[in-house]
Write a structure and sequence with these properties.
By secondary structure, the chain is an alpha/beta fold. It has helices at about 25-35, 60-75, 100, 130-140, 145-165, 185-205, 215, 225-235, 255-265; strands spanning about 10-15, 40-45, 80-90, 110, 115, 125, 170, 205-210, 240-245, 270-280, 280-290. α6 (about 185-205) crosses α8 and α8 crosses α9 (about 255-265).
């Protein structure tokens, strides 16, 4: 597959500032040593009023931005370094449109749905958290109704896209992590919901990531999004960017061969490399897959 890899990047990267295991410089060095052309740092943006052990804390926002910008200067001419955020969409609490994130003038923003907010008033919970937490959320938030949970997830994705403010759609079927082999939705129903998301992403001029993080951490059997979902993104002409969702240096380009093969199988002829943002629009460079 080497002939398919003229240029690759890693735009979804976490460090010690949130839930990653390595610092900014170590991740840059790993990207350079793996011959990547760019690295984008995407710390989990803080959620006001919510304390977790995996989000960047609000009082370190400026420090995080300064450290990434310093790395951008150090690596100039050798590796493109970008300042970004992965912003959770949590209705009423956080979206990519929020002013504190925009004020830092990031190069890019990944919009992701990790949290579901049950309509019955139960506590928000993460769909990709430990299995016991997911089961608790399913029981308390949805009365054990997996179909309702799945529809809530896709409704939340659709709300996030409609709200806007971000550039890259993060791991579009993250919910599958704790739902493998459960078949909460029929294949026809899930395909319909996924096509709704692909159509909305196309209309919003978004890029979707092909994220190998689940494979890197042995929590899924395939990339996010799955092959069938990627075929819908291809049908709706949504550009794709390959990302590792790396939380440590050893995963900076983990399972990229699988991502490339999956893209070819889904019908894509190219992936994209992020260049920069101008006038609030991201500029991309196409890379042929074969």
């Amino acid at each position: 597959m080497n002939q398919l890899r003229p240029r690759l990047s890693s735009m979804h990267t976490h460090t010690l500032f949130c839930d990653g295991q390595d610092d900014v410089e170590t991740m840059c060095r790993a990207a350079f040593e793996k011959n990547l052309c760019a690295i984008g740092f995407s710390a989990h943006a803080p959620v006001p009023g919510m304390k977790t052990d995996w989000h960047l804390s609000e009082d370190r926002l400026d420090e995080y931005a300064a450290e990434v910008l310093a790395a951008k200067s150090r690596w100039q001419g050798k590796l493109a370094v970008y300042l970004g955020f992965e912003v959770d969409y949590i209705k009423g609490l956080r979206s990519a449109m929020d002013s504190d994130i925009k004020a830092l003038n990031p190069d890019f923003i990944i919009g992701s749905v990790h949290y579901l907010v049950p309509a019955n008033g139960a506590e928000p919970f993460t769909v990709d958290g430990p299995p016991e937490e997911f089961e608790k959320g399913l029981k308390e938030g949805f009365g054990g109704d997996g179909e309702a949970l799945m529809h809530c997830y896709y409704d939340t994705l659709a709300e996030m896209i409609a709200t806007g403010g971000f550039d890259i759609l993060g791991h579009a079927d993250l919910v599958k992590k704790n739902c493998q082999n459960r078949n909460y939705l029929t294949a026809e129903s899930e395909s319909g919901r996924q096509e709704e998301i692909a159509r909305a992403a196309a209309a919003a001029l978004l890029v979707t990531e092909v994220n190998t993080g689940g494979l890197n951490r042995n929590s899924t059997r395939d990339v996010y999004p799955s092959l069938s979902f990627l075929r819908l993104f291809h049908q709706w002409k949504v550009p794709v960017i390959i990302t590792a969702d790396a939380h440590r240096a050893g995963h900076i380009n983990g399972n990229y061969d699988t991502a490339l093969k999956t893209l070819v199988c889904s019908g894509f002829k190219e992936h994209i490399i992020f260049l920069r943002k101008e006038n609030n629009k991201i500029l991309l460079q196409k890379q042929k897959l074969k």
